[in-house]
Structure formats: structure tokens, C-alpha cells
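dumping this here so i dont lose it
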């Protein structure tokens, strides 16, 4: 990578360039490791969020991911057809559908998390534990701040 003069360009390179590049490499890593699963990167984003936020509505998912409800419906239909999620009518509000992971979806998300932690270990191997903790803390702060923009 030295031929790209990355050290010289660092002060002038936007943070988002680095974040995007790391995400591209991570997505490629997952794609190569998840060949036994019928899942796309876009669908993984939905799987992650359904896992972390447990059972919630399609509207809440759309708001969380900054996408339209129509897009959420399209993605959820795909995930449901593949057997990764379950959609049920909310008992308290029949016009609302609650989304949760199926057993197959739970197995998938645990495999993804295992691979994610492996990836994090690989891509942060040049950092000390203290630097990793600080990096994660700073990313958390940036993420929270970006939600308010």
C-alpha cells in the first residue's frame, strides 16, 4: 500500500473515506465467509438490527435505518421467504406487524457475529488493547453525534 502515499495523504483524507473503505473490506470478508448462506449485505443490515432490537415494527425498522417503509417491506419479504425472520400481527394493533428472527435467523446472526469479531481482531491487530478501546469509544461518540445531524 506504500505506493499510494497513504501516510502523506492522511491529513487531507476525510474520515468517511476510511470508514467506507473499512466497511467495503468488511463486507467483502463476510461475502467470502458466508458462501453457505443465501444472504446479501443489505439483508445482513436488517438481520443485525432485528437481532439487537428484538421484536419491533416495520415502521420502527424503517426509521432506524433511514429507509422507506416500502423498502423495509421488500427486504422483509425476502428474509421471510428465506426463513430468517417471522412477521406477526401485533395483538394490540392489528395494522402493525412485529418482526423477529426465526431460529434459522438466530443461527445466521450468531455466525455473522462470530465472523465480525474475527474481522475486528484482524483489522485492529496493529492496535494495543487500550487503543482498540479508545477507537471504539470514539466511533461510538461519532455515531451518536451523526444521529443528531
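and the seq i came up w/
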Amino acid at each position: 500500500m506504500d505506493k499510494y502515499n497513504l501516510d502523506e495523504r492522511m491529513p487531507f483524507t476525510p474520515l468517511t473515506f476510511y470508514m467506507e473503505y473499512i466497511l467495503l473490506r468488511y463486507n467483502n470478508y463476510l461475502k467470502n465467509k458466508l458462501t453457505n448462506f443465501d444472504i446479501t449485505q443489505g439483508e445482513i443490515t436488517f438481520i443485525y438490527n432485528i437481532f439487537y432490537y428484538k421484536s419491533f415494527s416495520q415502521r420502527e425498522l424503517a426509521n432506524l435505518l433511514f429507509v422507506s417503509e416500502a423498502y423495509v417491506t421488500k427486504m422483509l419479504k425476502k428474509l421471510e421467504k428465506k426463513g430468517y425472520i417471522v412477521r406477526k400481527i401485533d395483538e394490540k394493533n392489528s395494522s402493525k406487524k412485529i418482526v423477529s428472527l426465526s431460529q434459522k435467523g438466530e443461527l445466521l446472526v450468531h455466525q455473522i457475529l462470530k465472523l465480525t469479531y474475527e474481522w475486528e481482531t484482524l483489522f485492529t491487530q496493529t492496535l494495543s488493547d487500550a487503543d482498540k478501546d479508545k477507537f471504539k469509544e470514539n466511533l461510538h461518540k461519532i455515531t451518536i453525534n451523526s444521529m443528531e445531524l
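The chain has a mean pLDDT of 91.
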